[in-house]
Design goal:
By secondary structure, the protein is an alpha/beta fold. The chain has helices at about 1-45, 75-85, 100-110, 125-135, 155-165, 185-205, 220, 235-245, 270-285, and strands spanning about 60-70, 90-95, 115-120, 140-145, 170-175, 215-220, 250-255.
Length: about 290
């Protein structure tokens, strides 16, 4: 009887010790991820974050959805920049089954209190990753952020303002208004212009940059309809559905520092053709 009790106590002590070690490891991992992202931002001496400049409602939270595929070289830096913004937020990272070291980087950041990291079992595309991210969003407003460094998270701050002040339901950040698109090739500008013009013709909207990454929504808006496109057809699909739903859509200027295909850019001619098909499909839908 005594032996059994001792064995039982020993077993319980072992479980308790194991739980304590697990808690310590988790705590150390969280501290490590916080330190790593803060050090990255500190190394960017010229990355000054502006003040918010307007009031947020009590209890406000922003959900930033970041689809990720093979971005091991930029994912830490973009996360440090997003986290530096003066906003209460959650960041939902959806890894679209990366085949480089991206997942290893993300595992090192697990436990960060503002990060939700989702690992998809197979690669499906940007639209599918965004669909997953939107399903997990709990903020008042949802913003899309790419995992590379083409888009500067400081531009999110002015994009939120018209929605916070109930002047609009959705804001698109246009690369072709005041700030312009740095390093953007003529081919890409012409392609984006043609796709935007075709979308405008069928939706009745007057956008200058339908293909922009920076799309910011009231959460109830983006969760109001289903996204069916798995790849870059997300852009024309969501634009057509916003127009058909009668939502208020506003454009504001943003900066843009384009990268080339040898730097990891993933959209190509095939995606342009698919975008045209999606414009026709969803633009003419009843």
């Amino acid at each position: 009887m005594t032996t059994t009790t001792k064995e039982s106590l020993t077993s319980q002590d072992s479980v308790g010790s194991s739980d304590n070690l697990s808690d310590i490891r988790t705590s150390n991992q969280i501290e490590h991820s916080l330190d790593e992202l803060e050090q990255l931002l500190a190394a960017e001496a010229d990355y000054d974050v502006p003040a918010l400049g307007y009031e947020l409602p009590a209890g406000f939270k922003l959900s930033v959805v970041i689809p990720v595929y093979n971005e091991e070289g930029t994912i830490r830096q973009i996360l440090s920049r997003v986290l530096a913004q003066p906003l209460p937020m959650e960041i939902i990272i959806v890894d679209d089954h990366s085949t480089d070291m991206t997942r290893d980087v993300l595992r090192q950041l697990e436990g960060h209190p503002q990060l939700k990291i989702i690992y998809k079992p197979q690669n499906e595309g940007k639209g599918a990753a965004l669909r997953t991210g939107f399903e997990h969003a709990t903020g008042d407003i949802v913003a899309v952020q790419d995992a590379d460094l083409e888009y500067d998270p400081r531009d999110i701050i002015p994009l939120l303002k018209p929605i916070v002040e109930n002047e609009t339901d959705v804001v698109y950040g246009s690369r072709y208004l005041a700030k312009g698109a740095k390093n953007s090739s003529l081919v890409h500008r012409l392609g984006n212009g043609a796709l935007t013009a075709a979308s405008n013709f069928l939706t009745g909207m007057k956008l200058t940059d339908m293909e922009t990454c920076y799309k910011v929504f009231r959460r109830d808006v983006i969760q109001d309809f289903d996204i069916t496109q798995n790849r870059f057809g997300f852009e024309p699909e969501v634009t057509a559905k916003l127009a058909r739903g009668g939502y208020r859509v506003t454009e504001l200027p943003i900066g843009y520092d384009a990268r080339d295909f040898d730097e990891g850019k993933k959209i190509g001619i095939r995606d342009g053709i698919n975008a045209l098909w999606c414009i026709a499909r969803y633009g003419w839908a009843d």
